[in-house]
Amino acid sequence: MRQSRMTWQYIAAVSWLVFTVALAVWWLVFGLSQARHLGALEGEAAQLGRVTRMLILEGVILVTMLVGGGVALLIGIRFEQRRRRDLRAFYTAFTHDLKTSMASLILQAEALSEDLPEAAGNPNLQRLQKDAVRLRLQLENALFLTESDAAVLIEAIDVRSMVDALRDDWPELHIEMRGDDRVRADRRAFESVLRNLLQNAVVHGRATVVRIEVKRVPSSAVEIAVHDNGRGAAADAAMALDRPFTRTAPTSGSGVGLYVCRGLLRQMHGQIHLLTNQSSGFGVAVQLPGAA
Fewest CB within a 10 Å sphere: which of 21, 43, 165, 181? Predict the structure, then answer.
């Protein structure tokens, strides 16, 4: 998406350069033709010479300035494209390395809980596991932001099995599920969407129960509605779907999670919208193409 936007900026700059230079040349040619018409008037020879010199001088200066400004604009856009590409490559590699380290840390914490039963109830260890899960999700969101135009691998995925695989990351959260179906989605992206919704419910909503309802809708899509019993969200929380890093309330998150969810779902030909008819808690509905 970002690369496409930069391409359009480049095309716009080239179009502006061509149009303005053509306009300046036309103005110069038109002015000189008008000056020649003045030569047909008796006693206007001196004025004709002054007008001609003025038009030539101003026309050359105008064309030179337009060409210089347009070339500088194109060079600036090209330089910005290279800088963004280099920065994106570095950020992607850096984030991948951090994700690997975080995965190792989570595995070690889980192994510690299994090998030392007396340490499983230690609040410090529990907090370490929660923070590790949260940090890993933030790194994944950051990685998706840098790879917003990356290709997706669409396959048939069972919704219930995906949800069951995520239960262990939030042991304090009771997840109730009603219905089941298969969707066509990218496994990694779909998992990230569910992780963000569950993380928002736990961290920002302070929810203890999440209800997930899966059903087919008339358009042959599968709707996955996620409701929690948390403290809800601000009335303008939907802004986070379009603008990341927007806090709609003092207790809300940065908005990156919902923004990433919408971007990933668009890549998978899905959509997301907030459920506004909730008497309590927070609700989100996700739609994805259904699999046979």
Answer: 43
Same domain? For 216 and 271 the reply is yes
Q: Which of 34, 114, 7, 19 is nearest to 67 (CA)?
A: 19
pTM of the full structure: 0.60
| pLDDT tens track for 131-183 | 777 777 777 777 776 666 667 789 999 999 999 988 888 888 899 999 999 99
- What lies within 8 Å, CB to CB, of 189 at 6+ separation is 144, 152, 264, 267, 268
Write the CA distances from 3 to 38, 56, 102, 139, 267, integer angstroms.
53, 41, 29, 21, 15
Residues 158 and 248 in one domain: yes
Whole domain around residue 258: which residue ranges? 154-289
Task: For residue 256, give the nearest of 242, 248, 245, 267 by alpha carbon.
Answer: 245
Structure tokens at 144: 């998706």
**What CATH number does the domain containing 274 carry?**
3.30.565.10
Domain co-membership, 101 together with 6: yes
* CA pair distance 207, 138, nearest whole angstrom: 19
Report DSSP state, residue 202. I
Predicted confidence band of residue 249 (pLDDT cuts 50, 70, 90) = low
Q: Of 109, 132, 150, which residue is a domain's last?
A: 150
- Helix ranges (DSSP H) in the chain: 2-38, 45-115, 117-120, 123-146, 159-166, 187-199, 256-267
The reply to whether 16 and 44 lie within a common domain is yes
Segment 13-71, tens digit of pLDDT:
777 777 777 777 777 777 667 666 666 655 555 666 666 677 677 777 777 777 777 78
Structural domains counted in the chain: 2
Rg (CA), the chain: 30
